[in-house]
Write a structure and sequence with these properties.
By secondary structure, this protein is mainly α. It has one domain. It has 16 helices and four strands.
Length: 409
C-alpha cells in the first residue's frame, strides 16, 4: 500500500501502545537489571533464588518464557514482602505469632478500623524500605522546570562584572585582577553503602510498580494505570526502551492536550476486557487479542492443504462467534474451562524457602560495605542514570513536533 487514499493511510485511527506489552517491557527491564547467570553464588539474588527453588524454565527469561518468569517473580516478591513484615513486626519466623499483635483493640474493632490499621502499618514498611529509592524523581522534576540563568559576580572588590559560566569568571579574575581563588574542595567521606540492601530494595521498588499495574489492570482502573505510566515512562527512557518511552509520552500528550475529552477518556479507560465476569477478572485488550490469535491458529492448522487466504479470512471473520458458541456449549454441558493463570497449586513450601534465603543474607538489614560479587557497587536509585536535562530536551522536542502536526491536521 502506498497511502494513496484515506483507507490505505488509515486516516482516523489513533495508534496507542497496549497494556500487556507495556507491562512485559517493564518485566524485561527488571530482568536485565537484576539477573546475571554468574550471580548463582550470590545468596538472595534473583538467579540464586531461582536455582534454590528449581525454577529452571523461568531462568530462560521473560522473552522466552514470560508466563513462567512472571509467576516466579510474583513468588519471589511475595517472599521478600513477607520477610519485610517479619522484620517490621519483629517475628522470628513465618509461623511465629506474638501475644500482643495485632493489639487487642484492633482485634475487637470493626473491619473498617482493622483495614485502616493494616494499611497504615503497610505504609510504614514501604516508607521505611523505599524512601531513598526515588531521589532522582526530585532531580527530574527540578530538571524539567525552567531554571534562571546563574549569576556569578566577579569576586574582586568593586568589580561589577557578572558571569554565567564559572570558567569565564575565573579567566576574567585572573586576567584583569590577577586574582586566583582556590575552590573549596570538599573531601567527601561518604559512609560505605550496603549494595546488597540496595539491590533488594530497588528490586522491590520496580517489582511493586509492576504489581500495581497488574492489579490496576485486573480492576480496570484506567486512572491508576495512568499514574503508573508516569513512572514506567522514566524506566523505558532510562533503560533504552525508546519506542515505549515515545508511546507513553504521546499517551500523556493526547490525554492532556491533543484529543477531545471523549476520546481522551476512552484512551485512559478502554484498555481491558472481562471475558469471565466478576470482579478483578479483567485482562489487557492486547493479551485478549493474543488469545484470539492462538485460537485462530488452532483452527488454521487443521486446514492442511486447504489453507489459503480466502479460507483463513473466512475463519478469522467468524472466530469471535465460534468462540462464543463453544463457550456456551461448555457452559451447558458443565465443562469447566481453565482459568488461564499459570500458578502451582501449593506455593507455600517455595515461599518458605525463599523467605529463608532472604533471612540468611539479611537482605533488608543495612550492613555497610556489603556487595554481591556479580553486582559490585549496585546503586539503590534505579533512575539515577537518567539525565533530567536530556529528558527535558527530549520531551520539549517531541511536544513541539506533535503540536505542529495536530495544529495542521
Amino acid at each position: 500500500m502506498d497511502g494513496d487514499n484515506a483507507e490505505e493511510r488509515l486516516d482516523g485511527l489513533l495508534p496507542k501502545f497496549e497494556l500487556w506489552h507495556a507491562i512485559r517491557n517493564l518485566v524485561e527491564i527488571l530482568h536485565s537489571i537484576f539477573y546475571k547467570e554468574a550471580s548463582a553464588g550470590d545468596k538472595g539474588s534473583l538467579c540464586s533464588n531461582m536455582n534454590v527453588v528449581g525454577a529452571t524454565t523461568a531462568k530462560k527469561g521473560p522473552h522466552d518464557a514470560y508466563n513462567h518468569y512472571k509467576e516466579y517473580i510474583n513468588k519471589d516478591i511475595d517472599a521478600l514482602i513477607i520477610y519485610a513484615c517479619l522484620k517490621a513486626f519483629k517475628l522470628e519466623s513465618i509461623d511465629a505469632r506474638p501475644a500482643d499483635f495485632p493489639p487487642a483493640y484492633i482485634l475487637n474493632a470493626n473491619l473498617h478500623v482493622q483495614k485502616d490499621w493494616l494499611e497504615s502499618r503497610a505504609a510504614e514498611i514501604v516508607d521505611d524500605l523505599l524512601a531513598g529509592n526515588t531521589e532522582s524523581l526530585h532531580d527530574i522534576r527540578e530538571g524539567m522546570a525552567p531554571k534562571p540563568r546563574p549569576q556569578l559576580p566577579c569576586r574582586h572588590p568593586g568589580c561589577p562584572k557578572v558571569y554565567v559560566r564559572p570558567g569565564a569568571r575565573v579567566t576574567h579574575e585572573k586576567g584583569h585582577h590577577d586574582l586566583v581563588v582556590e575552590e573549596e574542595s570538599e573531601e567527601s567521606s561518604l559512609p560505605k553503602e550496603d549494595h546488597i540492601y540496595n539491590y533488594q530494595t530497588s528490586k522491590l521498588t520496580l517489582a511493586l510498580l509492576i504489581r500495581n499495574m497488574d492489579d490496576a489492570t485486573k480492576e480496570g482502573d484506567g486512572e491508576r494505570l495512568s499514574r503508573c505510566f508516569r513512572m514506567a515512562l522514566l524506566y523505558y527512557k532510562a533503560y533504552g526502551h525508546t519506542k515505549y518511552a515515545y508511546g507513553t509520552l504521546m499517551f500523556f500528550a493526547k490525554v492532556n492536550a491533543l484529543l477531545p475529552p471523549k476520546l481522551a477518556h476512552s484512551l485512559v479507560w478502554n484498555r481491558v476486557v472481562n471475558n469471565r465476569g466478576g470482579k478483578g477478572n479483567n485482562i489487557p485488550l492486547d493479551q485478549n487479542l493474543e488469545h484470539m490469535n492462538n485460537y485462530l491458529k488452532s483452527f488454521l492448522k487443521h486446514l492442511g492443504p486447504n489453507l489459503n487466504e480466502q479460507s483463513a479470512a473466512r475463519i478469522a471473520n467468524a472466530i469471535g462467534e465460534m468462540a462464543a458458541l463453544l463457550k456456551r456449549a461448555d457452559s451447558d454441558l458443565g465443562v469447566r474451562s481453565d482459568s488461564g493463570r499459570h500458578t502451582k497449586a501449593d506455593r507455600i513450601p517455595e515461599l518458605h524457602t525463599l523467605v529463608d534465603q532472604y533471612a540468611q543474607v539479611e537482605a533488608l538489614s543495612y550492613v555497610p560495605g556489603r556487595e554481591y560479587n556479580s553486582f559490585p557497587g549496585f546503586k539503590r536509585d534505579l533512575l539515577a542514570k537518567l539525565s533530567s536535562v536530556n529528558l527535558a530536551k527530549w520531551v520539549n522536542r517531541l511536544v513541539s513536533k506533535w503540536s505542529a502536526t495536530y495544529e495542521n491536521a
